[in-house]
């Protein structure tokens, strides 16, 4: 799993280098992480499941064995988090 | 993100697992059984969170009063939900508020066993209550049941609307007060 926050001060990490495994070329800079990658592992897993269930909260609640409003609230929390990330940018 | 629920947390908040029509289905069966059993002990659930002993209650009257009380709570919490939440379903409020009344089944079961002194006797000597241990036991059980019921209502509103913090707490208190007033009013007007 890609680390997204600093293990020392918990601040948001940025991407400094990307490497091509084929020709060994390295691209360095200071790149912002995409919004989705800033979410936690659990949140990303939730989004993955949500997409796999065609965005159906009903199907998600059946899969997770949680009630419909509980799943909707989990989704709302992620949406709120994404809005907050977007506001910061 | 993962919702870890154990049996203890499910007792206080079963709505992470069950809500909507499913909760309403289970809840309404318990509510009807409670109302019927309570009538045999002359106990009526006459308000948002009330349970009082009366005289000659009867099954029909008990069912009507319980229905009015439940309707008042659902209506009040639905209005609170509209104010404090952007997107929620009416059926979740209906289901959670109905199932939240499940603890009253305990009081309904115990009610026929509670015996009271006459009102005149109690007025003359209030300490006579001590000679009726069933009332004391009923009173002692009523308190945790009431706390359980209120906690379930609170968690029901929390899960149904997704609201948090001060907004949820204030909304819940106002909802209970409004439901209490409207239920008393409806009971007075209808019966």
Q: How can the largest sheet of chain A be summarized?
A: 2 strands, antiparallel
Distance between the termini of chain B: 49 Å
Mean pLDDT of chain A: 91
Which structural class fits the helix and strand makeup of chain B? mainly alpha
Helix- and strand-based class of chain A? Answer: alpha+beta
Tell me the major beta sheet of chain B. 2 strands, antiparallel
Protein traits:
heterodimer; A: 89 residues; alpha+beta; two-stranded antiparallel sheet; 2 strands; B: 191 residues; mainly alpha; two-stranded antiparallel ribbon; 69% helix
Describe the structure.
The complex is a heterodimer of chains A (89) and B (191). Chain A is α+β, with helices and mostly antiparallel strands. Helix content of chain A is 46%, strand content 12%. Chain A has a two-stranded antiparallel ribbon with strand order 1-2. Chain A is elongated. With 191 residues, chain B is an all-alpha fold. Chain B has one domain (18-190). Chain B has eight helices and two strands; from the N terminus they run ααββαααααα. The longest helix of chain B has 29 residues, at 133-161. Chain B is globular, with a radius of gyration of 18 Å. The mean pLDDT of chain B is 91.
Question: Layout of helices and strands, plus pairs?
Answer:
The complex is a heterodimer of chains A (89) and B (191).
Chain A: E1 15-19, E2 26-31, H1 41-52, H2 57-64, H3 68-88
Antiparallel strand pairs in A: 1-2
Helix pairs in contact in A: 2-3
Chain B: H1 7-12, H2 20-40, E1 43-44, E2 52-53, H3 59-84, H4 90-99, H5 104-110, H6 119-124, H7 133-161, H8 165-190
Antiparallel strand pairs in B: 1-2
